[in-house]
Amino acid sequence: MRVTMIGTGYVGLVSGACIADFGHQVTCVDKDSTKTSTLNAGEIPIFEPGLGDIVRSNLEEGRLAFTTALGESVREADAVFIAVGTPSRRGDGHADLSHVYAAAREIATALEGFTIVITKSTVPVGTGDEVERIIRELRHDAGFAVVSNPEFLREGAAIHNFKHPDRIVIGTEDEHAKKVAAEIYRPLYLNQAPILYTSRPGHQDHLHQRNSRSLRARRCGRAGSCVRDRVRQSNWAHGPFGALVYEPSSKVQLFQQQWVLGDITPDPWGPI
Q: b vs e for 200-212, b when ≥16 Cβ sit within 10 Å of the residue's Cβ?
């Protein structure tokens, strides 16, 4: 699988190195040529236990490379991850998504063949829709699907967090995108980490639920995801590749086990 990772910050560098370590061909893109040269030399600009060894071993094996040439990397990729920074804006504290949208515009100009565009950056609900709109507006002829798959990594334990998740949540309803995501994360699935599929809004809401329970019901309603489904029914059912599929607007009978997301237990707020 050919993967392009746009952004070599904390999430982008760790994710790109780990995906290369799974056996995929990964190219990490950054606008800073000095940084890409340093990384290609095996020098790591951040401290993260084990990261340097993974980067250097995959550089030696030819599975990992760093470049400033976004267009060429995107044209050759089966999947493109957006892992750029989303710092808080001064004044209102909201996430600054300008780098995400700029990456989407650059991706649009380089797409060839059907490509999966995956948001790895931490973004608010609805960002995937805007990324899709931007690409579609610039390249109405392009074949692509936008997937939500942001990553939360704890400093000092990022490699373990990435390689030993309790679950992998993929936000997409596109069947081809599900197959590509399943292939990318296949080593984790073989290690018994379940792959859970949901809609993009449902996935992004799941990411916020631990931090903002009081706003979650309103967010679900705006995004088309039902809080009763998410908390009470936990509508996960078996889908392709043995994965679980989340269907937010329907009553799906659970197979084998009820999945409870995060540290949210069923019906934590009583009657709604």
A: bbbbbbbbebeee
Secondary structure of residue 51 in the 3-state scheme: helix
Give the CATH number of domain 2-246: 3.40.50.720
> Can you give the pTM of this predicted structure?
0.76
* Strands 25-29 and 115-119, sheet pairing: unpaired
Q: How many CB atoms lie within 10 A of CB 262?
A: 11
Parse the chain into domains and list their residue ranges.
2-246
- Tens of pLDDT along 167-208? 899 999 999 999 999 999 999 988 778 889 987 654 445 454
Residue 110 near residue 148 (C-beta atoms within 8 A): no
- Residue holding tokens 């990553």? 151
C-alpha distances out from residue 107 to 43, 100, 190, 241, Å: 27, 11, 31, 29
Return the structure tokens found at 60: 């030696």
User: What are 71's two structure tokens?
Assistant: 């267009």
Buried b / exposed e across 3-17, counting CB within 10 Å, b at 16+? bbbbbbbbbbbbbbb
Place of tokens 């507006």: 137
